[in-house]
Amino acid sequence: MRLRVLRMLFAIFRFYTDSGMDLDEDIAGLLVGNTSPEERPVIAGWAQDALKQKAPWSSGERYEMLLAALERANSL
Predict the structure, then answer these.
(1) Backbone CA torsion sign across 52, 41, 30, 73
(2) Distance of CA 4 to CAs 7, 42, 59, 65, Å?
(3) For 4-35, how does the pLDDT look when each residue is reduced to its tens digit (9 = 90+)?
(4) Distance between CA 3 and CA 32 in Å, rounded?
(5) Which of 61, 74, 72 is nearest to 25 (CA)?
(6) More confident: 73 or 6
(7) pLDDT recorded at residue 52
(8) pTM (2 decimals)?
(9) Which of 17, 22, 26, 35 fits a disulfide with 39 by CB distance 3.0 to 4.6 angstroms?
(10) Which of 51, 52, 53, 47 is nearest to 66 (CA)?
(11) Cβ(69)–Cβ(35) under 8 Å?
């Protein structure tokens, strides 16, 4: 299990390194821009669950921005 987690972390690192993307910004853009109208409510559900489970000291701003972007994309 630990090796799988480390492999996934490396894959994220490699993606970040190879693409030059800012992970804080581009992952949300990829989720909004590369998903179907049917997939977006599923992602919104994940974001809402994450908001409910976030640490009390953690900001939910990124999740809220993702939710707003998903809603805008579905209204187009």
Answers:
(1) negative
(2) 5, 25, 28, 30
(3) 877 787 787 678 767 766 666 567 887 888 88
(4) 30
(5) 61
(6) 73
(7) 92
(8) 0.70
(9) 35
(10) 47
(11) no
